[in-house]
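Board notes (copied after class):
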Amino acid sequence: MQVAVIGLGTFGAKTAIRLHEKGAEVIAIDMDEDLVDKIKDRVTHAVSIDVTDERALRSINISDVDVAVVAIGVHIEQSILAVTMLRKLGVGRVIARATSAIHEHVLYEIGASEVIKVEEEMGEIVASKIIAPHVLQRYNFAAGYSIVELKLGKNFEGKTLVESKIRQNYSLNIVALQKRVPYIAEDGKPAFRVEINDCPMPMDVIEADDIVVLVGSEKNFNKLFADLQES
């Protein structure tokens, strides 16, 4: 997959680097040569151009990318112009960052495929960490529904999936277990390897260090989180 990331502030740079680490071919773009220079060794290609300049965008074959991420936050006009130009040049999927409700509305109106509200989403993440500190990862895949990775705590340690009554009590489904399995390394020292059980059975046992992957509604997760806090 080829991805262009436009705007290399904190959010844009982090997005570009993580995409590259995950195997994407990343073109990082910013007018600021210093920001481009900082990231050039951590992405596929980094270039300093004006993304509102059609000729400059054509020179890097921007229409060939699978996805463009417009990470510009402060300069709203430049963000809007960048999305407009990308759509004009035929980029099929344009994901743009919005800093306000009006900005979001305009981005959708001019053709953004998806809009990310970083500040709001970070607020959700911080709130979740406070309310549910046992949650390791949370992925919202539909309105009101999530996939959550968490450790269930001592109340569930040593219980089988049936005995845990997660499904009966919370209407949540356990879809995977991640276990740390001890072994002896080549140097003779004890070590651990991670094993994923992506098809857990009713009699599988939940151990203290297991990461449990659950899927279900926000309402039911909140009920589980409340019980975990009390335990």
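Comment from the instructor: Residues 2-117 form a domain with the Rossmann fold fold (CATH 3.40.50.720). The chain is about 35% helix and 30% strand.
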